[in-house]
Each structure stands twice: as C-alpha cells, then as structure tokens.
Amino acid sequence: MPPEEPVAATDLTPGFRGRPRPAGIALPPGQYEEHGFPVLTAGTTPHVPTERWRLTVRNEDLEEWSWSWTDLMALPQDEPTVDLHCVTRWSKFGTRWRGVSLDVLLADVRSSAQYALVACHGGYTTNLPVADLLGGRAWVAHTYDGRPLHAEHGGPARLLVPHLYLWKSAKWVKEIHLVRDEQRGFWERYGYHDYGDPWREQRYQGD
To answer: Span 154-171, mean pLDDT?
Structure first.
C-alpha cells in the first residue's frame, strides 16, 4: 500500500485559512489586525459627567484614597502609544492615549495586597494582579487620539492595561479594591482567564 500524501495548504477549505497575518508586525497568536476601533460592551453605556466623576482606591484594611476629575487632571500625565489586543481576536496597533499612571495613583496607598478588583459604572468588574498595574504598564486614561475619551470607549476615563487582553482595561472605571485574595470579576466568573496574557493566548480558564 503506497504511503499517503501529506495534506497541502491548497487542500484546506476556506474556513481553515483564517485571516492573513500582516508582515513586519508582532501579532499575538490567534489575532488579526484591526484598523477601526470596535465597540464591545456588556450592558448599556454609562454617561458619567466629569463633575460627578471620582476614582476611589480602597486597600485591604478598607482605607480609601479618592480623586475628583480636577484632582486627576492636576496629576502628572503620561502619553503612552500602545497596541491593543481584544479576546475577540482583533488587535489594533499604535493607539495614542493620555492619562495618569497607576504608579502615581498608588504611590501613597498603604497596601501589601497582591490583587486588585476593578469596579466600574454600570456594574462591570475585572480582576488583575497589583504587579500588573505598576511599573509603567497601566494608566487611568481620559484622552484617546488627542480627544476626550468617548463614552462608548469608556469615557470619561477607563483603565488601560495594554499588555493584557482588552477586557482587563475596564471602561468607566470608578473603584480599585486592593485585596489579599483574588476575586474574580464579571467575565472571569463566566470562564474567561484570570490573567489574560494575549501572547500566551490565555482566553479562558485552563488556557
């Protein structure tokens, strides 16, 4: 019996081929390049006026630190240009933001907590290690591409943690709870990965 011929790429049906990977761009596995900015939201879009906006950080001993919009604008500002990777498989390169580093916001917060649970207007939550909010890797962003952040993208301010899948960059952020034990957020309770590293394709629990 003659040996079987190996399957050639030309034998695959279109459903196996997916989208071509762009040349010269570092794209995490399973992702494709997106030139628009898709809007994906769980629930309705909150509209929070800046005069009512506050950000509160609460530590594991329930002490609180809080900033108004005016307070936030008075803090040192960063202008990161970062790539975004959504768990729904699109990646957007070179996005330009302005906001305040979590290094600045957490600098005076007394805490030895290892985890954060981020809470938002509208009820959304997500969990992250505190270490991933520090080291110049996370911001509370209020400006996108030179303009105030639109409500559909999380305005007036959202968390921006671009080295993790985009569901960790919580829109409409209002509270950051520092906790000793990890507490799962909205999508994590539905089976999404607790960490969400796009380069290790950590989309779901067990990945």
So the answer is: 98
